[in-house]
Amino acid sequence: QLVESGGGLVQPGGSLRLSCAASGFTFTTYQMGWVRQAPGKDLEWVSKIDGDGSHTYYADSVKGRFTISRDNAKNMVYLQMNSLESEDTALYYCAAQTDGRTRFVGQGTQVTVSS
């Protein structure tokens, strides 16, 4: 099970930190990530992080602004989002992958960037 939190309304240029609590599976064996879906747009992988945190991936649209991290002791994954833009408005989902396949997805948390 994956449960996201931390979404909300923020002004352009602002920051938010999303959190995802994982349970029910061996957390360290899963690559974790964040996917978002904006209205009328396709799903977009925003960021991923390996099981031990040694490798990360970012979509070009968020590089330099977002940072993914995980705390394996707490079964948590985070997405620090800075310099938010209106284009970042979307429903953000936490996802768990093994062997390149998505195994679990959370219910999503809404991020709205607007003045």
Please provide a written account of the structure:
- By secondary structure, the chain is mainly β.
- The protein has strands at residues 2-5, 8-10, 16-22, 31-37, 44-49, 56-58, 66-71, 76-81, 90-98, 101-105, 109-113.
- The protein is globular and about 40 Å long.
- The termini are far apart.
- The mean pLDDT is 96.
Summarize the helices and strands and which ones pair or pack.
Blueprint: E1 2-5, E2 8-10, E3 16-22, E4 31-37, E5 44-49, E6 56-58, E7 66-71, E8 76-81, E9 90-98, E10 101-105, E11 109-113
Parallel strand pairs: 2-11
Antiparallel strand pairs: 1-3, 3-8, 4-5, 4-9, 5-6, 7-8, 9-10, 9-11
Keyword list:
about 120 residues, seven-stranded mixed β-sheet, mainly beta, 11 strands
Assess the beta-strand content as a share of residues.
over 45%
Record field, number of beta strands: 11
Helix-strand pattern = EEEEEEEEEEE
Q: Helical stretch count?
A: 0
Biggest β-sheet strands, sense, barrel: 7 strands, mixed
Class of secondary structure makeup: mainly beta
The proportion of residues forming helix, as a percent range, comes to: under 10%
User: Low-confidence runs (pLDDT<50, min 5 residues)?
Assistant: none
